[in-house]
Amino acid sequence: MTAKIIYGAILLLAGIIHLFMGAVFLIASSDNNTRLIIGIILFAAGALLFIAGYRIFRKGMVLRPGAIE
Predict the structure, then answer these.
(1) Which of 4, 29, 46, 66 has its CA 20 to 30 Å from the CA of residue 21?
(2) Rounded Cα–Cα distance for residues 67 and 65 (Å)
(3) Which residues touch 6 (CB under 8 Å, ≥6 apart)?
(4) Whose CA is closest to 61, among 11, 3, 12?
(5) pLDDT (tens digit per residue) in 9-65
(6) Residue 64 has what pLDDT?
(7) Which element (helix H / strand E) includes 30?
(8) Is 67's pLDDT higher than 70?
(9) Global confidence as pTM
(10) Which residues lie closer than 8 Å to 27 by C-beta, 6 or more apart?
């Protein structure tokens, strides 16, 4: 249970960082196609990491001993 909470929190943080960096690259990609592609990839990866981290974190919180009672 604790491992799921920690793993989910790490994935959530990684997702937030990727979303932020993707947004920065998308904003900075005025005439640069390479930055646009990297921004889209980072943003998509961040969204996937954030969703996976949220689901794992939520499952870990539901299965902790205090919530089972």
Answers:
(1) 4
(2) 6
(3) none
(4) 3
(5) 999 999 999 999 999 999 998 888 999 999 999 999 999 999 999 999 999 888 777
(6) 72
(7) none
(8) no
(9) 0.83
(10) 39
